[in-house]
UniProtKB/TrEMBL annotation:
Keywords: ATP-binding, Helicase, Hydrolase, Nucleotide-binding. Residues 498-507 have a biased composition (Basic and acidic residues). Residues 439-499 form the Filamentation induced by cAMP protein Fic-like C-terminal domain. Residues 488-507 are annotated as: Disordered. One of its GO terms (molecular function) is helicase activity. This is ATP-dependent DNA helicase RecG.
Length: 507
């Protein structure tokens, strides 16, 4: 049975996080049944995982070329697998595929998160040892669940992620073969070559996008979101709305709504933004032959922010994803906010470690298409893209109830509020009044240049707050403060200094 993934990419870890792959040099039924049970329990809703037998593991990665298996082992392993599946309680069947890699046979087991968790498996397959245990994945290891983790498994029993649930309002015919084949071809899956030779229902079963008994087979939500031409018929909020404003008031704007399979929405919306919003600027530097080149918004940051919105939003809600392109920033708004324990305070950090995910299957499909990367890489990638472009830092927020998630990407500082490329003018209108915090920052810098950390310490603020960033950006827009190292906001030796205009305003 062919798997709906490219096995070479799977082995390299380019489409699935390493903690979701377990390599085994040889066939050990006891190890296999424990790991199958752990992936079936899917305690962190990551989508289960893969067991690859015939490849040794070293320092968490595969040792290539593979050790391989003997061809006569493969049939015996498949027969034994049926026995192991029945010894897991409730019964659980993985998807298996013997295959050949670099001239050697390997055996791949795809173990998706199960619908009937929590699962138990024997502590030992020896007749002398009795007893069963809940097995889970803890980072890259398969271990027995402790009391707290067992409690969590029971709490998750009635919480199948929405994208992995059966949709009883649809039929298998609502999944379009052409879209399925297009996806399989794009990810270079071996299943594409078999798509025309096996029954359509069997193809859907192998892709894990349908569930239920033969007489009442139904698509699951992720199948409709990716492989139906109009998923908004089933999920009214499955759209991306892009609004480009031409004035500050909001009276003049253009709007475009993207529908269709959610991965195609994402691609088309990004193409639209790249064509209609992103532009390259050239700033000539006095005394320097080579001009500085930058973008109003770095594409990589926009791509990551919008892909994360598609991945992490709830498709149970009718709210669409909103992309508002204002004169000085891009806002991407999605609903609801992040799952606990992520809150507004945690969103101010550059790296967020989340343990629970709203859409375990959508993430897998987007990773196959290379539209998202591994877990916990989104925020660092956004910060890095903004830094490399010389842009201000991004801003992320939610409310106390986590009812929304808002990502803001500020326009490049030289283009804010009518600023001229080359830094000749940033906005000459006089600032009539300053807040107490703004005055305090100017007085600190009046004594000499200071780093962000020292300014925050002097103000008694936390090390990273969106509030502080907005104040600093406002002072720089008004040309009241400036960087000591121009155009490199996050240089390790970067400091702020007060400008002559800032000194005059304090007098």
């Amino acid at each position: 049975m062919a798997l709906p993934v490219n096995i070479e990419k799977l082995i390299k870890g380019s489409v699935v996080e390493t903690e979701r792959i377990e390599f085994k040099k040889g066939w050990n039924p006891e190890d296999v049944i424990h790991t199958m049970c752990a992936f079936a329990n899917d305690i962190n809703n990551l989508g289960g995982g893969y067991i690859i037998i015939g490849i040794e593991e070293e320092d968490g990665g595969p040792v290539l070329p593979p050790n391989g298996l003997k061809q006569n082992q493969l049939d015996a392993m498949q027969k034994k697998l049926v026995e192991l599946s029945n010894r897991i309680q409730p019964t659980y069947f993985a998807v298996s595929e013997p295959t050949e890699i670099r001239g050697e046979y390997i055996f791949v087991l795809y173990c998706p998160g199960g619908d009937n968790r929590p699962y138990k498996a024997p502590v030992s397959l020896s007749d002398k040892t009795r007893g069963q245990a809940h097995w889970i994945r803890r980072y890259n290891s398969t271990v027995q669940a402790n009391d707290q983790e067992e409690q969590k498994l029971h709490e998750l029993a009635a919480k199948i992620p929405f994208d992995d649930r059966i949709n009883h309002q649809a039929s298998v015919n609502d999944i379009k073969l052409s879209l399925v084949k297009e996806f399989l071809q794009e990810i270079d899956s071996p299943l594409f070559e078999q798509a025309d030779d096996i029954p359509f229902v069997e193809l859907c079963r192998q892709m894990q996008i349908v569930k239920g008994p033969v007489e009442n087979l139904k698509p699951i939500n992720v199948g409709l979101l990716l492989f139906n031409d109009e998923p908004h018929q089933f999920f009214p909020g499955a759209k991306i709305e892009v609004v480009i404003y031409q004035d500050e008031v909001g009276d003049r704007f253009s709007e475009k709504i993207f529908t269709g399979p959610i991965h195609k929405q994402l691609i088309r919306a990004l193409e639209y933004l790249q064509t209609n919003v992103i532009r390259e600027e050239v700033a000539k530097v006095e005394g320097q032959a080579q001009a500085n080149r930058f973008y109003n918004y770095p594409y990589a940051a926009i791509e990551e922010v919008l892909a994360n919105a598609v991945y992490h939003r709830s498709y149970e809600l009718r709210n669409t994803i909103e992309v508002n392109v204002r004169l000085d920033e891009i806002e991407v708004l999605s609903f609801p906010g992040p799952l606990p324990p992520v809150d507004n305070e945690m969103l101010q950090k550059e790296r967020i470690i989340a343990r629970d995910y709203r859409n375990r299957r959508i993430g897998d499909f987007l990773k196959e298409l290379q539209l998202t990367e591994g877990r916990s890489t989104g925020f660092p990638k956004i910060y890095k893209a903004m830094e490399q472009n010389g842009s201000p830092e991004p801003d992320f927020e939610t409310d106390a109830n986590r009812s929304y998630f808002l990502a803001k990407l500020p326009i490049h500082s030289r283009l804010k509020r009518g600023g001229q490329v080359g830094g000749q003018a940033k906005g000459q209108a006089a600032k009539k009044s300053l807040s107490d915090t703004e005055k305090a920052i100017l007085r600190i810098l009046e004594k000499g240049p200071s780093s962000r950390g020292k300014v925050l310490d002097a103000l008694g603020m936390e090390k990273r707050t969106g509030y502080f960033r907005r104040i600093i950006d406002g002072l720089m827009d008004e040309d009241l403060i400036a960087y000591t190292i121009p155009d490199t906001p996050r240089h390790p030796n970067q400091q702020y200094k007060i400008t002559d205009r800032g000194r005059r305003l304090l007098e």
